[in-house]
Amino acid sequence: xxxxxxxxxxxxxxxxxxxxxxxxxxxxxxxxxxxxxxxxxxxxxxxxxxxxxxxxxxxxxxxxxxxxxxxxxxxxxxxxxxxxxxxxxxxxxxxxxxxxxxxxxxxxxxxxxxxxxxxxxxxxxxxxxxxxxxxxxxxxxxxxxxxxxxxxxxxxxxxxxxxxxxxxxxxxxxxxxxxxxxxxxxxxxxxxxxxxxxxxxxxxxxxxxxxxxxxxxxxxxxxxxxxxxxx
Length: 231
Fold this sequence. Notes:
40% of the residues lie in helices and 20% in strands. By secondary structure, the protein is of the alpha+beta class. Strands 3, 4, 5, 6 and 7 form a five-stranded antiparallel β-sheet that branches.
């Protein structure tokens, strides 16, 4: 019996046929799956030239479909920035209450009606996923006027990764050896969660993604409402 799927490709359900009725059409998520399998499928060296035709035949698609799949893949890069690890951002949680922080005002600004010395801090959390493994990321938000900044905790794996990238050289050199985070210790924790190891470039890309994602517009609106209610 002929094996119609020698490369163990993921079976997908087409959404229909194209206008010319010569290839199948698929949902955007499934087109991304098709695109990824070009790179994630292990193919013997002597079968490399046969793989792409086999993939197109299995899904009944053409080169144009693969091109569109690549465009979709690039378009959702913000939601899956490191596709080998399927890094995605989840929901946020506001864990505590607003804490008023009084900031000293310089004498030059004391008479300025627009100066805003009132500030707040609040504990928050954002969930991230790596290969569908849920990883919490706790941080404190400092808010004053229209600006805000964040301070990351140091307990969860994702928080340790953040500080591994952002801690100064002196901290790595002079800190308690038992507390110092290394690429090796990070990968040991990742492996314990069933997540493949990361190289240094991937670690930096991951932290960039986290920093860009921890506070979104919905969270800003929620924080502003809390401040409005407090005032």
